[in-house]
Amino acid sequence: MEAQATNQNQSQEVQQSQQQSSSSITEPMEPKKTGKLPVKIVPFLLLIVLIGAGIFTGLMFSSLNKSKANQKNAISEEELTPEIKENLSQTFKDEAEGTVEKNDDFDKYAQGPWKLIRAGGESQTAYLTSSVMDLDEFIGKKVKVYGETFGSDQVSWLMDVGKVEVIE
After folding, report:
1. Is 126 within 8 Å of 138 (Cβ atoms)?
2. What distance lies between CA 9 and its chain's CA centroid?
3. What's the rounded Cα separation, in Å, for the pair 15 and 102?
4. What distance, in Å, lies between the first and last C-alpha atoms of the chain?
5. Mean pLDDT of 116-140
6. What's the whole-model pTM score?
7. 3-state secondary structure string, 106-120?
8. If DSSP codes are grouped into helix, strand and coil, which group holds residue 122?
9. Are 162 and 147 within 8 A, CB to CB?
10. CA angle (151, 144, 128) in 5-degree steps
């Protein structure tokens, strides 16, 4: 009897294991949730980080090169040859003398960041811009400016300054 009972137990165990193995073959297994990012997302995120780092370093290096190039291109007037000085005087045909002041932002006719106060009153004031130099260092000084005159509906004289000589 005992042999029959053990045979029945063994046959039941075999049937259960067969049922489990057959059910695992036909039924999909549920993925294990480990709390980690899926393997497909990691390379994508890494690619985005690398592209961002490349853009950032490219912008940093390009700004460094621009500032160094601007310093190299600046030439003092003593280094200019007579031919270049003559070309500059032909380029900057217009000239005016007076005292440089910061332009008043509250002036309804204000054009340009600076103005040149000249003898003869308000009608002789030249409003100044400069595409090549900063005129803030000449504020309060009497200077002779060279540049190009532009038409303006708001002011009598608008000049783009390219060269400045300090008189006093």
Report:
1. no
2. 80
3. 99
4. 129
5. 82
6. 0.47
7. CCCCCCCCEEEECCC
8. helix
9. yes
10. 35
Task: Label residue 11 by pLDDT band (50, 70, 90).
Answer: low
H-only helix segments in the chain: 2-26, 41-73, 82-91
Q: What pLDDT is stored for residue 148 in this prediction?
A: 81
Q: For 20-24, 85-89, 151-155, which range has the lowest pLDDT when averaged over its residues?
A: 20-24
Q: Which amino acid is at 89?
A: S
d(C-alpha 102, C-alpha 49), whole Å? 47
Please write the tens of the pLDDT for every residue from 40-81. Answer: 788 889 999 999 999 999 888 887 766 555 555 555 555 666
The three-state (H, E, C) secondary structure of 55-74, written as one string:
HHHHHHHHHHHHHHHHHHHC
φ, ψ (nearest 5 deg) of residue 67: -65, -35
Of 111, 121, 123, the residue nearest 150 (C-alpha): 111
- Write down how long the chain is: 168
Residues in CB range of 159: below 8 A, 6 or more apart: 94, 96, 116, 126, 127, 128, 129, 145, 147, 148, 149, 150
Residues 6+ apart with CB under 8 A from 166: 138, 141, 142, 143
